[in-house]
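Q: Could you fold this chain for me?
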Amino acid sequence: MSHTEHDLRELLAARSEGGRGGPARLDEIVARGRRIRRRRGWAAAGTVAAAFAVLAVLVPSLLSGVSGANGRRSDIAARVGETERAPREEGVRLAGARSENTAKVERLSVTPRSDETSYRVNCAEGWAFVRLGDQVDGGVCGAHDTQWTLSGSLDEAREGVPATVEAFTVPASQVPQDVRERSDGTLSSGDFDRMLADSAPREALWEIAIHDGGVSSMSCSPDICLDSGTLPAAHGERNLAGLPNGHQIEGRRLTEINRRVAFAPALHGGARVYVRCEGEELHAFIWAGKGGDDGVLAKSLPCGAKPALWEFSADGPTDVTVAVIRRDRVPDGVDFVSDLRVASDRANLLLRKLTPEAGKWEVSIQQWDEPESKVRVSEGPEGRSYTFGD
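A: Sure. Below is the predicted structure, expressed as structure tokens.
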């Protein structure tokens, strides 16, 4: 085991004892790193300094492993965050659901509280279809180059009468022309059933919320609306993903894979990197640092509609480098975890053997809008979860 890995593990073990579970602080890491360095007497002082500069960003990841919709027209797909910066007109959320698959119906049971009940569907790419009784709405809820939200009013909802709202999404390529032409409010229940039957399931992250009164596009979860930011819901509800609210500091949509892309955002406190490869079977590498020989691999994860995620804590300008390759290019049995420096070298070697080619993916580096002291991160069988203090 290398000195770098051994001392990193000591840092991780110490940080995990009795902590609150959130990202480690930079000053805490650096101070402990200096003590370890003095105790072990590393000879390569330059190498150590560089390693701990990277660890200040890297350690936390390893600790883890439309404006209001009042009209009937549902095809009014507002660009997320374009007009409304605060969900002032948003009503109380009655129900919500998230899904990781297209062509799979989500059913939400609600009891309307007034004569105005609205819905909002957020997705990264594709079309959404919503049904309540004889009312069927359909339209764009996301695209690779622009993030949108599909919203509308549920005209068949009646105050005090229990109702079931059904919704699903499909890739835009699976929507026939006749359905596109009738998405102005003339879709039928038969169209809903036909689209569901004719659509092939695939991985896709999307969500639907039902509100009493209007809805706000700014209540989209940050792992779906990567570039728009997420404000607290008007009545105190968390975003449907249960994630800390945040906003994008730096991001990019790309159409070429097999090359590194560097970022240097100024971050303060909790932060996260999302790498999403909508509709692509890709694999993401995320480096703490500038990549190449100077970076340390922070994450090596499959990248799809559900984005690859790295969370960390930083204070100031932070170098982050990202690259994606096709999943079938990742050798079977290669260890990208136990020795960070070796893992970085292996990832760099893979990239040197590849030439750039077409492929759609995007990167979003987000700053938490909530103090780290009020967020506790836990790991469980189903992944990471968050609890929030007052």
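A (continued): Residues 3-52 form one domain.
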